[in-house]
Predict the structure.
Amino acid sequence: MKKTNMAKAVSLALGTGTFALAGPAFAQDWMSQDFIKPYDETVTIGLGGIVNQFDTSLRLDGSGNNTSHGTDINLENNGLKKNLSSFEGALSWRFAQRHRLDLDYYTVSRSGSKSYTGDINIGGNDYPVGANVNIRNKYDLGSIDYRYSFSQSPDFEWAALIGFYGGKFTFDVNAIGAVGSASNTAAYNKSVSTTLPLPLVGLTADWYLSPQTRLGAQAMGMQAKIGDVDGHAYQLQLSGDYMLVRNMGIGAKWVYTDIAASVDKSDFNGHMGWRANSFSLYAKLIF
């Protein structure tokens, strides 16, 4: 029994001693100025905040025997915030020197209302003298892509990209207004949503000004019809980051995104358009 306790004590002491010796070494390596050279990193993580400036439109058409086209509603003019900040996370895995897998994700939620004074049609309901329209909108957006680098030099790399951009777009719409006369009102209350798995092809370029400094540019997009969604996604991106110590740095990114899709579903028959200018600041971790 005593031998067993002593063995545990020795094991604990050895483990504690190893951690005590490894801890400062790890911290020293993390904080060192011996920067990871281009193409030697394995995983890159970006965590930060993103500020978006939106331009969004939504049209809900009638369904069944009522095939009337709805009114194009600009959501920002309907009281939804034009500028909004949220959290963004990104990950890049260079699993071989010329091969990278990239992931990016962020979410946005907004709501607003407006009282219209003229004719408006929503989901087949026509309000000739206007309606009060409340809309709540949520996006869960992400992209995944694979990059193959055709050219790599000590200070420049360019790659071809193929992947998917999309996510889930949800719109909760409530409208009530007069139909024919002020005493005859009609209400429309519906939650519609669609996923947008839109394929992407593109090119990326990275300039390594030093082991500390990188500038990047990216252009990608495609128009395609997948199932009941017919649309396009285009994106331009400029970025730059600076490593403060070996494994940690800071960065900034500008992204312009243009998405439009016609949707023909039982619960969502219509069209949506979404444009966003996005600017993000992030902490960068590389290993």
Remarks:
- The first strand starts at residue 43 and ends at 60.
